[in-house]
Amino acid sequence: MKIGFIGAGNIGGTAAKLFVDAGHEVVISNSRGPETLADVENETRAKAVAVEEAAVFGDVIFVSIPLGKYKSLSPSDLDGKIVIDSNNYYPGRDGEIAEVDSGLATSSELLAKHLSGSKVVKAFNTIWFEHLRSEGDKSKPIGERRVIFVSGDDADAKSVVSGLIEEIGFAPYDLGTLGASGIQQPDSVIYNKSINIEEARKILAENSDGASA
Ligand SMILES: NC(=O)c1ccc[n+]([C@@H]2O[C@H](COP(=O)([O-])OP(=O)(O)OC[C@H]3O[C@@H](n4cnc5c(N)ncnc54)[C@H](OP(=O)(O)O)[C@@H]3O)[C@@H](O)[C@H]2O)c1
Hints:
The protein is an alpha/beta fold. The chain has helices at 10-21, 38-44, 51-57, 91-94, 98-101, 107-114, 129-134, 155-167, 197-207, and strands spanning 2-6, 25-29, 47-48, 60-63, 82-85, 119-123, 147-152, 171-176. The protein binds NADP nicotinamide-adenine-dinucleotide phosphate. The site of NADP nicotinamide-adenine-dinucleotide phosphate (NAP) has 24 residues, from helix 1.
């Protein structure tokens, strides 16, 4: 699969390497240009390109930037693509976003509204990049692996992203729609927890009313 990364820092760089190792064609990008990504290129063996090229190249686009920058993403370049949203909302870094603060929308719904022709899937945002690097284990059965949570409004897109998660040794856990993805935000009961599907199900059952793996 062709995967384009917009943002190649802690999470983007780590995920890019995992997908290269899994046999995918991967390109990486940032806002400052490919010449600033030589080290990440060496580490990941993914080619560094301009943001626009990464967007056009990928069937799947992995967006991993400070959320406050989401309006810099080009809706036309990303039209029709599956967009993985690993972004988290930190008001101190991203600026206060009234719709999210008031509960009117999740940050992923705002991204999906901006990228109205894309299929946005929230994933990879609840795991610390060092754990993403080290805790995937393809030798384990799905039930014993650490979960990575996914939310999205397009079932096919979620299925593609879930497949990618399995390929790098984790277990996808479907939380439902983008509207329900607020549970994936920092400091929630499932955020940054090294848990398997059963443990996730238990925590969610105790704290909400009904997501399923
Ligand atoms: N760190 C974690 O463990 C972790 C875990 C889960 C989720 N997250 C979330 O994932 C996102 C990325 O986090 P991170 O820790 O990987 O951040 P990071 O290390 O600071 O990397 C951010 C990347 O995005 C690029 N970037 C910034 N603005 C951009 C823009 N407008 N267009 C294209 N590229 C842009 C940066 O490069 P340039 O500045 O050169 O453009 C850099 O490559 C954040 O929303 C974060 O909250 C982080």
